[in-house]
Amino acid sequence: MLKRIKRHQVRVGMFITDIEDPLRDEAAPMRSFLLKDEGAAAKVRASNIISLVIDTRRGVDVGTGRPLPEAQENRSSLSDLSRAFTQTEIKEALQTIEQTRPLLDTLFSNVRLGGAARFEPADRAVEQIAKSMESNPAALIGITRLKTKDEYTFLHSLAVSALMVHFGRFLKFDEQAVRILGISGLLHDVGKMLMPDAILSKKGALTDEEMAEVRTHPVRGYELLSRQSDMPQIVLDVCLHHHERIDGKGYPFGLSDKQISTQARIAAICDVYDAMTSARSYKRAWTPAETLRMMLKSEGHFDRHLLAQFNASLRASFSPIPPNERRSGARAIQ
Predict the structure, then answer these.
(1) Which H or E run includes 317?
(2) How many independent structural domains does the chain possess?
(3) Peptide bond preceding 218: is omega within 30 degrees of 0, i.e. cis?
(4) Between vectors from CA 332 to CA 159 and to CA 129, what angle results, nearest 5°?
(5) Residue 202 domain-assigned (yes or no)
(6) Paired residues of 52 in beta bridges
(7) Tens-digit pLDDT profile for residues 247-277
(8) pTM, rounded to two decimals
(9) Geometric angle at alpha carbon 272, from 266 and 275, rounded to 5°
């Protein structure tokens, strides 16, 4: 079984299949290896590596000790981030999150209590996100991956918005179009606010009936957002179509290829990327490298050209240079 672990959990006898290292060229193939001696294990623990993937069928596991509580594990992860970012960058990213929190709390509370999603708080939140992504993109994306159960919806919405803003700028969209992309990302899953928490937080596999209900969230979100006269059409389109697939096997309508807008295709990529790189109650978080490999191998799901561009956008802007070696303006990928 493949398992993602922190570098401090490494011990002799583990079979390593992948690493997440800010200094590693993720485009280069990763060669699996067995950790044979304590010297090699100590070197890994003292390195810049953020996490590793081990195969417990081919080597030893981390043992049967109690897992770290979620909050403690996130503190450990934040410590790992400090190796890739300066304290100023981390502080600025956390500040952006705290500035957007009351806006999104208001937005989501209005949805749950009154079935209404106003454009204005979403627009103001994206203004904060877009500003942060100009100067500090990798740190913001890195920190949003440290999602607790209670904050998953909030941080997933923020992260998808940030990724769409970043990708839109990479694609040379004008700033108004970028702003609309950011709002689309922020509101893409708003239909889930109307669904039972028991389904959204369920640890085991969903029943057919539960899965069918989950798949109503794009339509529910679209109906909710369309009640607002000032809601841009692109935001409505992304909300309704971000789970469609190029091969026509998506939902809710089974659209394919040119029937799906560029904005909805972008949202599909950013949504899956953030979901896969985030830990949930029912799965470990994949590394960015694992996630992109999986997405590239997923035939028919994503727009192949846009996915290649998305990969390039991450590599172009999130350079793998640690803080103590970084020139002004560079950023480290998380």
Answers:
(1) helix 304-317
(2) 2
(3) no
(4) 30
(5) yes
(6) 5, 19
(7) 999 999 999 999 999 999 999 999 999 988 8
(8) 0.74
(9) 135
Q: Give yes or no for a contact between 115 and 194, defined as CB atoms under 8 angstroms apart.
A: yes
Cα torsion 21, 290, 215, 244: sign: positive
Please say whether the beta carbons of 156 and 148 come within 8 A: no
292, part of any domain: yes
Position 128 scores a pLDDT of 92
Do 301 and 12 meet the contact criterion of CB atoms below 8 Å apart?
no
Q: Which domain holds residue 28?
A: 2-55
What are the angstrom distances between the C-alpha of 106 and each of 114, 130, 186, 201, 207?
11, 20, 13, 22, 32
**Are the beta carbons of 7 and 45 closer than 8 angstroms?**
yes
What CATH number is given to the structural domain containing 280?
1.10.3210.10
Q: Is residue 157 part of a domain?
A: yes
The span from the CA of 120 to the CA of 118, in Å, is: 6
- Region label for 117, one of left (φ > 0), alpha (ψ between -120 and 50) or beta (otherwise): beta
Query: Token match 């708080």: residue?
Result: 121
Q: Are 37 and 88 members of one domain? A: no
DSSP per residue over 185-204, as a string? HHHTTGGGGGS-HHHHT-SS
**Looking at residue 1, what DSSP letter applies?**
-
* Cβ atoms within 10 Å, residue 261: 17
C-alpha distances (whole Å) from 317 to each of 154, 181, 304 are: 24, 19, 20
CA distance 124 to 105: 13
State the pLDDT at residue 256: 96
Say if residue 243 is in the same domain as residue 142: yes
In angstroms, rounded to a whole number, what is the distance separating the alpha carbons of residues 205 and 308?
Answer: 31
Q: Which parts of the chain sit beneath pLDDT 70? A: 20-31, 48, 50, 63-84, 148-150, 203-205, 279-284, 318-334
**pLDDT given for residue 147 in this prediction:** 73
Secondary structure of residue 136 in the 3-state scheme: coil
